[in-house]
């Protein structure tokens, strides 16, 4: 079965790669989880859009990672809005995607949510928090954000 990957899959490829896999693996794992689409002529035209979106989120090199770290250090006013109880306790949790969206809304760089490390149980109520962002193997940034009730 010929598929086009829409997300990175271990031991298989990166988004936009055309891969040949066994029918069962494609039908039962990759397609239902949205990790791939069937390779057709129309889908092959979408490869450019997939690769462009991936390049936008990707950290190019060590200097670019340092530049992003400096931007994150200078960034202020990052607020994640969530539903809360009257005592400030959260309904639900704050995910890495929520933080990435809040950084973008505050005028910061576009971050890949998979690079944001939110320890389990860190965010339990409103207030200020800090999480680490793995920008490169040698560069790690920090994002300070505030959780507020919506």
Could you provide a short overview of the structure?
It is built from five helices and seven strands, in the order E-E-H-E-H-H-H-E-H-E-E-E. It is an alpha+beta fold. The chain has two domains: 2-57, Ribosomal Protein L9, domain 1 (3-Layer(aba) Sandwich), CATH 3.40.5.10; 62-149, Roll (Ribosomal Protein L9, domain 2), CATH 3.10.430.
Task: Look up the CATH topology of the largest domain.
Answer: Ribosomal Protein L9, domain 2
Strand order in space, largest sheet:
4-7-6-5
Q: Which stretches are poorly predicted, pLDDT < 50 over at least 5 residues? A: none
The number of E-state strands comes to 7
Largest sheet: 4 strands, mixed
In N-to-C order, the SSE pattern is: EEHEHHHEHEEE
Topology summary:
Layout: E1 2-5, E2 18-20, H1 23-30, E3 36-38, H2 41-45, H3 47-57, H4 62-74, E4 79-82, H5 96-105, E5 116-117, E6 127-134, E7 140-149
Parallel strand pairs: 4-7
Antiparallel strand pairs: 1-2, 1-3, 5-6, 6-7
Keywords: Ribonucleoprotein, Ribosomal protein, RNA-binding, rRNA-binding
Pfam family, one: Ribosomal_L9_C
GO molecular function, one term: rRNA binding
Keywords:
single chain, 150 residues, alpha+beta, Ribosomal Protein L9, domain 1, Ribosomal Protein L9, domain 2, 2 domains, three-stranded antiparallel beta sheet, 5 helices, 7 strands, 23% strand, globular
How does this structure look, described?
There is one protein chain. The protein contains five helices and seven strands. It has 150 residues and is of the alpha+beta class. A hairpin with a 5-residue loop joins strand 6 and strand 7. The mean pLDDT is 87. The longest helix is centred in the middle third of the chain and has 13 residues. It has two domains: 56 residues, Ribosomal Protein L9, domain 1, CATH 3.40.5.10; 88 residues, Ribosomal Protein L9, domain 2 (Roll). The strands form two sheets. Strands 4-7-6-5 form a four-stranded mixed beta sheet. It has a three-stranded antiparallel beta sheet with strand order 2-1-3, with no helix packed on it. The protein starts with a strand and ends with a strand.
